[in-house]
Design a protein that fits this description.
The complex is a heterodimer of chains A (about 450) and B (about 775). By secondary structure, chain A is α+β, with helices and mostly antiparallel strands. In chain A, about 15% of the residues lie in helices and about 35% in strands. Chain A has a domain at about 60-355: Methylamine Dehydrogenase, Chain H (7 Propeller). In chain A, helix 1 packs across helix 2 (about 365-380) and helix 1 packs parallel to helix 3 (about 385-390). In chain B, about 5% of the residues are buried. Chain B is flat, with a radius of gyration of 62 Å. Chain B has a domain at about 125-160. Chain B starts with a helix and ends with a helix. The chains are: A alpha+beta (about 450), B mainly alpha (about 775). At the A-B interface, helix 1, strand 17 and helix 2 of A face helix 5, helix 29, helix 30 and helix 31 of B. Chain A: Pathway: Protein modification; protein ubiquitination.
Chain lengths: ~450, ~775
């Protein structure tokens, strides 16, 4: 006789270790779990609300400079170390974990115009208004020693910017022309000009390292090839570009921070049309830096705020401001892509989270799963008006808010005029120019 | 700048040439007295000048006949002659002398060659350089296109991109640099070394290795064969055991068991003879088992099995026997065992036989009678009662049902029943007593037992009959009172069947009429027709069912939607076997329904709903517009109405709206108005990447939560697009990361790599 009895496989309900979660057998029959869309919608709504509740991006303010912070540099090997140069010629090195200044150097007389670290992180370079380029050791001098630069190069003109090559002992300065220097020489190994104008910044391409980009005050952006010692192409925009930044993951993409409140992302092979026009600032954009993942960038503006833009979106996803932060002059995204630093006019360096509501520290696996799920839900329901409204809502200072309104009106008026002009003229005689093409004046070969 | 300068110089030159025009004319007029060929040329010139007078080629190139201050290096004018200088002209004077043959040759060679073009200006050259360099760079950059595309479309990107090689050092390396420090470690190492336990890769001790090596092939084969045999034997044994286990015959098992017991006994006896001490131990074991049994009360008839057997015992001989056996076993085990002698065992056997013959109930009573325990006695009677209830499955449950349904109002019949039961018990106990007497006689056959049980049966049957009759009479009374619509029938069919049968045709009618009802304006007949009396229903027997269609037609007018909705839906039930339990439940249900009916006597939900729906329909209907102006063209005032003609004239009828969606759904109201509150949670415009609204809806409708997906699917669905590790520096992408060869060439400028050019450049700089 066969005896029927309950038989259960212990594998189905016994935990492997006692730290595991209890196994709960589940029935996925959809009839047992009705209303999946409304339930997920509510979850998404809650996740969005919670994201706003926990959005506290401001982490720390590093004070110590006695004048506006003019430039920032990251340490290439150490996440916690940051260098900053001020308008009074002072350079400070900060420790982010301790949030204090670990070294102070009176580097220049007048502004520190530019600062950059060597790719190995052993030394750094500064240029100042006193027409000098100085190289400093990253480690401080021993006890009793004087603070002295390793090398000093005295130039003929003022240098307005500096950037170091990503692999070799070569750096580039800009001023009246772009100079490429060997670290060991006191003369530039080559200097490249195209017309005469003051060049405000020069940047090496991090991937194809022989490429350089610079922007000059005659409204143009010039690309150079270091190998062939020649400029490549020049694009002239409506207004002056303050600085550019190369995408660290896409060799031919760079973004330019412009005086006309916009940022332009270009593919350097097709300069006649920007890939994307990023607009949200209400004053000149002074600095831009890419996230090391290459998916987003942060921009600092004269309107006392910094904004984070996705590379493929024309509107910013985030805006950071505080009451005390004045015109933001420089901004950097840290190498682990988690934090943002900005230096501003009122002598402070501020540290922000790149993701405002992200939880810092170690996450348990369940927390991580919940976070991922919430993120996906927010993505899935992002087009729903209620959720969109909550997700987009930001408090803004009154000045920015009113300026946004004002500019909206101006833009609308301009658009209306354009439309009217097209409407009342012979069809085809007034061309319709897209927003992207509007801002590019010319491309010079 | 240089271009400008060039343009200026050109301009200056042209002006100068114009100035030079005047004296030339003079010259023309003055030098008439020149040679023949000169005159010829002049004549030609004159002709040209005249021909150019017509306006088109007015402006003539100037002929320079005078040394000017500014001579442009760019344009050497050959105007003087008016013809191009030809090489032949130069060679003419040389013709005669033969010594200049080499020069001639050279000149002829020159003649065949073309003139070298002017070098481009600096800007042009730079532009070309730039263009070439740009094209080259663009080509270099285009190798990143697939990488960039891949990264943009990637489901997930994990940063930093370069994989960090986990530093796995081989264990030998680790061990060589590692020393045992703590005493425990030293001890362990000592042990390991002593046993020559290998610390590194091959995990066999030397001894094991040796043994492995020692075993020859034949040995291994033999060993294997042995193992195979053992395995086969085991499987045979198992199969046999399984087969034996499957044998259903109880007798077989009994025999086997007995055989085993006998065998054990024999062995025990032998042991007694051979080894009394061991036998004593065995005895003790047996005693222990007995004690355990006694403690556990396992063989008492309180277990589940025993109870079920007790129930079955009435009808099943085998069950009875099993019970008997159990009892005997119990006795055997609970008895204190003095000496295991054969005679006693025999006695027990006889007892068994004896007990086999009497029915279970009787047995129990007998046993209980041994010990004068009043509690036990009582339980015995209750047992009998239970037995009695199970005795007649057809009738007695009804009795039980009546017992249950009997409420306080029906105390009298209950009392009667009790009396009857008591009588029954008394009779039974009498029986038992007589049977007790019979017990004394060893020879009591199966037949007697059967007869006795039959007697009990007949008695019970009579009793239940009585009870049933009473119950029916009571029921009849109730129906005559008319509170509960129930019909008593003499037919064997159960009562519950009938309402169903009666209502069925009606229901069919209603279903058929449903469509018509939809079309009918249900508001017209405002007063509800009389609800069908259940008494009427009861009059309609299954016999007159064939007449139903006729009746249906008659009733068509009577039945409408409201009626349909307000009548109770018949309880659907299988007609096959009307069980008593069902009946019981039915009664309960009926009571329940009655109670609900009483509680909600006031409100008619269905009618309310219908009213509500009517109002909704009215509200959604397009309204007529009345444009009559009272008092216009006729007298107006209180109590005066515009004339009907006028009203007709100025009434604008609204067009019929589209049919309502709930037109054919009697118990549903579908609101077709847009809900503002819901609209706040709805997407108005199709979002960007989607091309069709169905796409979007589908993505929304597939849930991603773990409530609807398995763990693995959930993880896959919620993978984040970008993963970064905190505290890890993300370096820019490198050619090596994506499988390209990095350019080994230095990025230094060409001049830097080419020392020759540097020197020239430096010289230039020095010159400057």
């Amino acid at each position: 006789m066969k005896v029927k009895m309950l038989s259960r496989n212990p594998d189905n309900y016994v935990r492997e270790t006692k730290l595991d979660l209890q196994r709960v057998p589940r029935n996925y029959d959809p009839a047992l779990h009705p209303f999946e869309v409304p339930r997920e919608y509510v979850r998404a709504l809650n996740a969005t609300k919670l994201e706003r509740v926990f959005a506290k991006p401001f982490l720390a303010s590093l004070d110590g400079h006695r004048d506006g912070v003019n430039c920032l540099a990251k340490h290439p090997e150490n996440l916690a170390t940051v260098l900053s140069g001020a308008c009074d010629g002072e350079v400070r090195i900060w420790n982010l974990t301790q949030r204090n200044c670990i070294r102070t150097i009176q580097a220049h007389e007048g502004f520190v115009r530019g600062i950059c670290t060597r790719f190995c992180g052993t030394s750094f370079f500064t240029v100042g208004d006193d027409k000098t380029v100085k190289q400093w050791k990253m480690d401080g001098p021993g006890y009793g020693d004087e603070e002295e630069p390793l090398h000093t190069i005295l130039g003929k003109t003022v240098y307005t910017g500096i950037d170091h090559h990503w692999k070799e002992a070569v750096f580039a300065t800009c001023g009246q022309q772009v100079d490429i220097w060997d670290e060991q020489r006191t003369n530039p190994i080559c200097s490249m000009t195209w017309g005469f104008d003051s060049i405000s910044s020069v940047k090496f391409n991090p991937i194809e390292t022989f490429l350089l980009g610079s922007c000059a005050s005659d409204r143009n952006i010039v690309l150079y090839d270091m190998r062939q010692a020649t400029p490549l192409k020049k694009v002239i925009l409506d207004m002056r570009t303050n600085t550019i930044c190369w995408n660290p993951m896409e060799a031919f993409i760079f973004t330019a921070a412009n005086e006309d409140y916009n940022l332009y992302t270009f593919d350097m092979r097709a300069l006649d049309t920007p890939v994307m026009v990023h607009m949200d600032h209400v004053s000149a954009v002074l600095d831009v830096d890419y996230s090391p993942t290459g998916k987003e960038f942060v921009s600092a503006s004269f309107d006392k705020s910094i904004r984070i833009f996705p590379v493929d979106k024309s509107r910013s996803r985030e805006v950071y401001h505080t009451k005390r932060m004045q015109h933001v002059i420089c901004v950097k995204w840290t190498s682990d892509s988690k934090y943002i630093m900005c230096g501003s006019d009122e002598m402070n360096i501020r540290l922000w989270k790149a993701n405002a509501s992200e939880k810092l520290g170690v996450l348990t696996s369940r927390e991580k799963a919940a976070k991922d799920y919430n993120q996906k839900l927010k993505e899935k329901f992002q087009h729903y008006p209620h959720i969109k409204r909550i997700a987009r809502h930001r408090h803004l200072p009154k000045s920015i808010y009113s300026q946004i309104q004002e500019q909206r009106i101006m833009k609308e008026a301009r658009r209306r005029k354009e439309v009217n002009r097209i409407k009342h003229s012979k069809p085809g005689s007034v061309p319709i120019v897209s927003e992207k093409k509007k801002h590019v004046v010319a491309v010079v070969k | 700048m240089t271009a400008n300068r060039l343009a200026e110089s050109l301009l200056a030159l042209s002006q100068q040439e114009e100035l030079a025009d005047l004296p030339k004319d003079y010259l023309l007029s003055e030098s008439e007295d020149e040679g023949d060929n000169d005159g010829e040329r002049k004549h030609q010139k004159l002709l040209e000048a005249i021909s150019s007078l017509d306006g088109k080629n007015r402006r003539k190139l100037a002929e320079r006949s005078e040394a000017s201050l500014k001579v442009s290096e760019f344009s050497v004018s050959s105007e003087g002659s008016g013809e191009k200088l030809v090489l032949a002209d130069l060679l003419e004077p040389v013709k005669t002398s033969s010594s200049l043959a080499t020069v001639k040759k050279q000149l002829s060679r020159v003649k065949s060659k073309k003139t070298v073009e002017l070098p481009l200006n600096k800007e042009e050259i730079e532009r070309i350089h730039r263009e070439v360099a740009f094209n080259k760079t663009a080509q270099v950059l285009s190798k990143w296109d697939p990488v960039v595309l891949k990264n943009r479309q990637a489901e997930q990107l994990v940063f930093p991109l370069e994989k960090e090689e986990p530093a796995i050092a081989p264990i030998e390396h680790v061990l060589s640099g590692w020393k045992a420090r703590t005493p425990l470690e030293q001890e362990i190492f000592n042990l390991l070394h002593k046993n020559k336990q290998p610390v590194t890769d091959p995990l066999l001790t030397p001894v094991e290795k040796a043994s492995l090596r020692a075993m020859s092939l034949e040995e291994a084969k033999m060993r294997r064969a042995e193992l195979q045999r053992a395995r086969a034997l085991q499987s045979y044994y198992e199969a046999k055991a399984r087969r034996e286990k499957k044998i259903k015959s109880k007798k077989y098992h009994k025999v086997v068991k007995k055989g085993k017991a006998k065998k054990a006994l024999k062995e025990f006896e032998q042991l007694q003879k051979v080894n009394p001490t061991v036998a004593l131990e065995e005895m003790e074991k047996i005693e222990n088992a007995r004690m355990m049994e006694r403690m556990s009360l396992k063989h008492q008839n309180s277990g589940k099995w025993a109870k079920s057997k007790a129930i079955m015992a009435k009808y099943d001989l085998e069950a009875r026997q099993a019970m008997q056996e159990q009892l005997s076993k119990n006795k055997e085990l609970t008895q204190k065992l003095q000496v295991a002698s054969e005679s006693e065992e025999e006695e027990g056997g006889t007892e068994d036989v004896e007990e086999l013959l009497v029915p279970d109930v009787v047995n129990e009573v007998q046993m209980n009678a041994d010990g004068p325990n009043p509690w036990m006695l009582r339980s015995c009677t209750s047992d009998t009662k239970e037995a009695a209830t199970q005795e007649d499955p057809e009738q007695l449950p009804e009795l039980a049902a009546h017992e249950v349904s009997a409420s306080g109002a029906e105390e009298r019949p209950v009392a009667e029943e009790e009396i009857l039961l008591r009588e029954f018990e008394e009779r039974q106990s009498l029986r038992k007593r007589s049977e007790l007497n019979q017990d004394a006689e060893p020879a009591s056959s199966q037949e007697t037992k059967d007869s006795s049980s039959q007697e009990v049966l007949s008695e019970l049957r009579a009793l239940s009959q009585k009870l049933k009759e009473k119950h029916q009479s009571r029921k009849q009374k109730a129906s005559s009172e008319g509170t509960v619509p129930q019909v008593q029938r003499e037919e064997p069919a159960p009562e519950e069947e009938e309402p169903l049968l009666l209502q069925r045709p009606e229901r069919v009618q209603t279903l058929e009429e449903l469509e018509e009802l939809g079309k009918e304006d249900c508001f017209q007949n405002k007063e509800l027709p009389r609800p069908l009396l259940e008494g009427q229903q009861s009059e309609r027997t299954p016999n007159n069912r064939p007449d139903a269609p006729k009746e249906k037609k008659e009733k068509e007018q009577l039945i409408n939607l409201q009626n349909f909705l307000t009548t109770q839906s018949p309880s659907v039930r299988s007609l096959a076997v009307p069980t008593i339990i069902e009946e019981l439940e039915d009664e309960e249900e009926r009571n329940h329904r009655q109670m609900i009916k009483e509680a909600f006597a006031g409100d008619d939900v269905i009618r309310d709903f219908l009213k509500e729906k009517r109002e909704a329909v009215e509200a959604s209907k397009p309204k007529d517009v009345d444009l009559t102006l009272p008092g216009w063209g006729e007298w107006g005032g209180v109590g005066l109405k515009p004339s009907a003609k006028k009203r007709r004239q100025f009434l604008i009828k609204a067009p019929e709206g589209p049919p309502r969606k709930d037109k054919n759904l009697p118990n549903v109201i579908i609101s077709e108005k847009r809900n503002i509150h819901a609209a706040a949670h709805q997407v108005q415009v199709l979002p960007y990447p989607f091309t069709h609204h169905r796409q979007f809806e589908r993505t929304i409708q597939t849930p991603i939560g773990s409530t609807w997906n398995t763990q693995r699917a959930f993880q896959k669905l919620t993978t984040p697009k970008v993963v970064t590790k905190p505290g890890h520096i993300i370096k820019p992408i490198k050619a090596e990361d994506v499988g390209y060869q990095s350019s080994s060439r230095s990025d230094l400028p060409v001049i830097q790599r080419n020392p020759k050019r540097i020197t020239t450049r430096h010289n230039k700089e020095e010159k400057l």
